[in-house]
């Protein structure tokens, strides 16, 4: 299948084809003794993920674990569907996200407020998962991949209060979710993901510092793909956060409303990203992954909390 890439170490990247796009959201299958799916993608892409797992030889009774870095719908919207396809799989999530997977009604209501009619085409509907199948992680936890190999979780809020990073003891791969921002492999661009309501600059920088301290061999971005230049990339993640926060803080201190703040930040950061000078499709893809309106709104929300 053309949406599966072998990354070595029995790890397979699956393009979930979110909303019909390529290269937007990745799921990852760790195909050890106890196969583990990291990130499900959206509800609408769950059949795509199932087909990929089938082609890799993982049948309905074979998947041992499904783990999500956090419960935003592009990462975990497919959990309920995937849980239905794989009745033996344990569903693993940080404790601050667990109740929303069991009862997604509040999460879906707030997502509909943000996305409106676009919700159905972009994400679809997160279906509930039986609470008895959900394992809630604390600040750290371990997922058994079989043969002494573990996937170790580390609480890394800042992007979202239910976010974890996951490091594979066998490969040194670190699944960064959205805590290190979004990466566009076509252009090498990296920019932050700072949506409301949870963004907090210091906590986000601390999470990146934690990732550096874990000493990973490779970063696996949910958006999108593997990066081997770990130190340089995490350094850029922190720098990008500071740039966006400094510009938004300036807009905030000048009393700009959201629309004017977004326009100013977009204009001042334009030159940083080759994707925005590329073809329209690449620019659109980048904006969908890490939209300036969402990023600036999240930073303003935080600024209003810390310096109203």
UniProtKB/TrEMBL annotation:
Pfam families given in the database record: Lactamase_B
SMART domains per UniProt: Lactamase_B
Signal peptide: none
Domain Metallo-beta-lactamase: 24-223
Listed Gene3D superfamilies: Ribonuclease Z/Hydroxyacylglutathione hydrolase-like
Stored PANTHER family: METALLO BETA-LACTAMASE SUPERFAMILY LIPOPROTEIN, METALLO-BETA-LACTAMASE DOMAIN-CONTAINING
Name under which the protein is recorded: Beta-lactamase domain protein
Taxonomic source organism: Streptosporangium roseum (strain ATCC 12428 / DSM 43021 / JCM 3005 / KCTC 9067 / NCIMB 10171 / NRRL 2505 / NI 9100)
Taxonomic placement: Bacteria, Bacillati, Actinomycetota, Actinomycetes, Streptosporangiales
């Amino acid at each position: 299948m053309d949406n599966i890439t072998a990354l070595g170490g029995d790890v397979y990247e699956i393009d979930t084809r979110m909303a019909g796009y390529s290269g937007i959201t990745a799921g990852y299958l760790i195909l050890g003794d106890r196969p583990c799916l990291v990130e499900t993608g959206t509800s609408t892409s769950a059949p795509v993920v199932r087909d990929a797992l089938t082609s890799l030889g993982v049948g309905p009774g074979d998947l041992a674990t499904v783990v999500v870095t956090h419960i935003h719908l592009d990462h975990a919207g497919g959990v309920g569907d995937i849980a239905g396809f794989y009745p033996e799989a344990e569903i693993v999530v940080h404790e601050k996200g667990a109740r929303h997977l069991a009862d997604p009604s509040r999460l879906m209501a707030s997502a509909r407020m943000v996305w409106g009619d676009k919700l159905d085409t972009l994400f679809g509907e997160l279906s509930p998962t039986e609470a008895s199948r959900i394992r809630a992680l604390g600040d750290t936890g371990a997922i058994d991949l079989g043969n002494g190999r573990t996937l170790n979780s580390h609480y890394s809020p800042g992007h979202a209060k239910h976010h974890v990073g996951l490091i594979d003891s066998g490969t040194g791969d670190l699944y960064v979710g959205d805590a290190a921002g979004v990466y566009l492999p076509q252009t090498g661009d990296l920019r932050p993901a700072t949506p409301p309501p949870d963004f907090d600059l210091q906590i986000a920088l601390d999470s990146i510092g934690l990732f550096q301290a874990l000493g990973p061999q490779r970063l696996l971005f949910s958006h999108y793909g593997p990066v081997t230049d770990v130190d340089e990339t995490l350094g850029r993640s922190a720098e990008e956060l500071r740039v966006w926060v400094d510009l938004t803080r300036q807009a905030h201190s000048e009393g700009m409303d959201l629309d004017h703040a977004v326009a100013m930040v977009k204009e001042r950061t334009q030159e940083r990203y080759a994707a925005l000078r590329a073809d329209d499709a690449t620019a659109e893809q980048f904006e969908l992954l890490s939209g300036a309106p969402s990023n600036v709104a999240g930073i303003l929300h935080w600024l209003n909390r810390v310096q109203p």
